[in-house]
Amino acid sequence: MTYSNDSHIKSVEDVEAFFHHLVDERKVSFHPDNMFEDYVSCEGGVNTFSLGECATYNRLMDESFKACEKEGTDIYKIGLDILLYGMGKMK
After folding, report:
1. For the chain, how long is the longest CA-to-CA vector?
2. Spatial separation of the C-alpha atoms in residues 32 and 64, rounded to whole Å
3. Reduced 3-state DSSP string for the chain
């Protein structure tokens, strides 16, 4: 999936899809509290995301927090479960 300025997170299912995108497609070990400008490549220290992607992804993460809060779901548990799944630690 591709995320753009027109993309929005409105539900926990959207949060899960966004987090899977980060782990499975973008190959990022992320934390919901981190700004996307903080992610750099281990090989050369190059930013992982462009400035435009950072703006979009930071907004989507803010929307993710709001969606989880609205539905009474723990955003950190969702993130951890998806990271563990991506590392092959969970099925």
Report:
1. 40
2. 9
3. CCCCCCCCCCCHHHHHHHHHHHHHHCCCCCCCCCCHHHCECCCCCCECCCHHHHHHHHHHHHHHHHHHHHHCCCHHHHHHHHHHHHCCCCC
Q: Do residues 7 and 63 touch, judged by C-beta distance below 8 A?
A: no
Cβ neighbours of residue 1 closer than 8 Å, sequence gap 6 or more: 17, 21, 25
d(CA 38, CA 61) in angstroms, rounded, equals 14
Read off the pLDDT of residues 50-70 as tens digits, 9 standing for 90 and up. 999 999 999 999 999 999 999
Contact 23, 30 (CB under 8 A): yes
